[in-house]
Amino acid sequence: MREIARRLYVATSLLVFVVFAGTAAIHTIGHGRWTWFQSLFHTVITLSTVGYGELPGMENDPLARTFSLALIVLGAGTMVYFASVVTALLVEGELREIFRRNRMRRHVDSLSAHVIVCGIGRTGRHVIDEMRATRTPFVCVDSDIEKMTRLADEIPGLAFVVGDATEDEVLEAAGIRRARGVVAALTDDKENLYVTLTARSLNPSLRIISKAVESTAEAKLRKAGADKVVSTNMIGGMRIASEMIRPNVTEFLDIMLRDPEHVLRIEEARVTDASPLVGRTLGEAALRKVCDVLVVAVRSAEGRYKFNPGAEQVLQSGATLIVLGEHTEIAKLRTAVTG
């Protein structure tokens, strides 16, 4: 498209130059017999091959006729080039947009167990940054097409759907029936409420995390079907307090989250029924031989947590390991515990 735009600029400049030069030449050849407007009119009808007729007295002026012949030949080529560039801009631009939409639709349709992030504002942008860092498949949904186009240029391969996230067909296009979860990160609590209601009705098994701007919205969002509600104001206040009370801990967490070379995260891995680790202790499992992770806690199937578990901790089916490690090592752990 940039190349076509460049050609359009050249073609337009050439056409303007030919019109200006032709008008000036006709006016000069006529020695004042024809006004500037008459000269411009004759040049334009000559270039466009309309041919209404000659200017008064031109039939007796061989030089004017000779120049008009040259103008026809030169102008016809200029007009053809200009028309071809404009046609290419329209046709190729439209075709590129159609191909882009079809390619995006196929890309989204190929995803499963992904997360749909609704609202790519100040909060949503941080959400997708974390999704990218942890290699979690996701689809963005936002009604601002210019914003999504800019983001797609910045993030190659970005999957997105342009539309209102509160509408059924938009979430359907984002693959909500195949998704594992939805993040409602719009700027208005009412919109997040609608997204939560719509998403829950389309896929009851989804995990839905909603942003809450006002504290009074949390109860309503939970009733609408949100599994968890995150108050950005509360999180911001806790972060400010942490910077004051425990600055070294906060610095450690920042390094853990923002280190571009080592993507350390506190993650979870569920022990399935088919796992070979069922009934064995952490010591017997020897997870450090399989992957380089630190087991921070174990959550039982009943929801009880055991923090800093010892080697004697028995792993039962349905238990969840809370671990600290890099993304690649956590992937190895998940493979080991699922069997």
Keyphrases for this structure?
339 residues, Helix Hairpins, Rossmann fold
Describe the structure.
54% of the residues lie in helices and 15% in strands. It is α/β, with parallel strands linked by helices and 339 residues long. It has 3 domains: 2-106, Orthogonal Bundle (Helix Hairpins); 111-237, NAD(P)-binding Rossmann-like Domain (Rossmann fold, 3-Layer(aba) Sandwich); 263-338, Regulator of K+ conductance, C-terminal domain (Alpha-Beta Plaits). The strands form 2 sheets. It has a 6-stranded parallel sheet, with helices on both faces. The radius of gyration is 33 Å and the shape is elongated. The model has no long low-confidence stretch (mean pLDDT 85).
Give the helix level as a range of percent.
40-55%
Amount of beta strand: 5-15%
Order of strands in the sheet with the most strands?
A: 3-2-1-4-5-6
Could you give the count of β-strands? 10
End-to-end CA span: 50 Å
How many H/I helices? 13
Total number of distinct structural domains: 3
- CATH homologous superfamily caption of the largest domain: NAD(P)-binding Rossmann-like Domain
